[in-house]
Amino acid sequence: MKKLTNKEEEVLKVLWALEKAFVKDIQAEFKNNKPHYNTLSTIVRNLEEKNYVSHTAYGKTHQYYPIVSKEQYRKGFMSQAMSDYFNNSYKNLVSHFAQEEKITVEDLKEIIKHIENQD
Asked: The pTM is what?
């Protein structure tokens, strides 16, 4: 998967929520810092070039829809993050969150319980 910019990811999240949308529909979802229509149109076309989005044409206008699911994106994103930042080690990942106090002992116990019940 090709890496997305923050704006591309933000637009893709809107498309996941809407499922299908015209650029004006995507634009309407931005409450603060609403991007200009032409800027947003360019971002959506970039997403299409990167094979995250496709469209149905209705005359001169296009209705866009995601062709990469949120789950597919999450898997690719996490795989890349694991490789880039944690040497492909889930132990390093969990240790990082523990050191940053982003995960509690209770959370870890729950995760262990979940893992043990996988059988």
From this structure: 0.80
